[in-house]
Amino acid sequence: MTKEIRTVCYDAELNVEAYRFEGIMQKFPHHFHDYYVFGIIEKGQRYLECNQREYIIHPGDMIMFNPKDVHTCMQVDGDVLDYRCINIKVDRMRELSLDISGREETPVFAGPVLRGTELAPLLKELHQLISEGETDFIKEELFFVLMGQIVQEYSEVRAEPARSGRTAEFRRVCEYMESHYPEKITLDKLCGLAGLSKYHFIRSFTRDQGISPYNYLETIRIGAAKKLLEQGIAPSLAALKTGFSDQSHLTHFFKRYIGLTPGQYMKIFREEAASVPLKRKDNV
């Protein structure tokens, strides 16, 4: 059996995360991130659904996810997945947009799949430089060259990605979960906000948002837990502060959605606080 290797680095100079997954069989359920993801497939075909559209992605393809893009993926050819990506927070993307275009905007990227693009080798090279702890400015130069091309060629400027027709109907529900995620949230409460029966609420919310109400809530909680872990908050306490029943509950969902355990994720930021050189790694 192929050994799974999961590597994550944080580059303090670029202010980005770099993930690499090798030998992965895991299916990732419907979820979203509160940051941008730019990745390349190196091995294995995968079925991808993003914003309720379906794709088959192949080695050499590049993917781009906007914040709140609901997506899921799974293997289709029996082969393992080798994949690498960089993650960029919204504030950092706004800084890049200002630097590149002279306008501090929040871009939305078309896609999510780019086939045969010349950007894929650039992304792979940048990822390697980050992973190897490159300190020369070649890394920063490549980063701005790559992001400049992506922003100029593939971005639009909108407040958020377009959603299907009934989003406004569930806005109160989403805002409630985003504000009250540390608390116990009941289906009765969410149905009351939407004015629907439980059956019709679950069906309508999932059809509209592309994700079930419970998965939406857990995704919000995972995003909040990541921020606490980055600050050095222990996984057990982060779990309690974000609505999970205990650390085991947090670990289950964290690995399911992120592909890492909370402890592995926290480790790179603990090392950063201890002033370890730029290369931050954790291999599983």
Automatic annotation (TrEMBL):
GO terms for molecular function: DNA-binding transcription factor activity; sequence-specific DNA binding. The keyword DNA-binding applies. PROSITE patterns: HTH_ARAC_FAMILY_2. SUPFAM superfamilies: Homeodomain-like, Regulatory protein AraC. Coiled coil: none annotated. Residues 171-268 form the HTH araC/xylS-type domain. Keywords: DNA-binding, Transcription, Transcription regulation. The keyword Ribosomal protein does not apply. InterPro entries: AraC-bd (IPR003313), AraC_XylS_family_regulators (IPR050204), Homeodomain-like_sf (IPR009057), HTH-like (IPR037923), HTH_AraC (IPR018060), RmlC-like_jellyroll (IPR014710). PANTHER family: HTH-TYPE TRANSCRIPTIONAL ACTIVATOR RHAS-RELATED, TRANSCRIPTIONAL REGULATORY PROTEIN. This is AraC family transcriptional regulator.
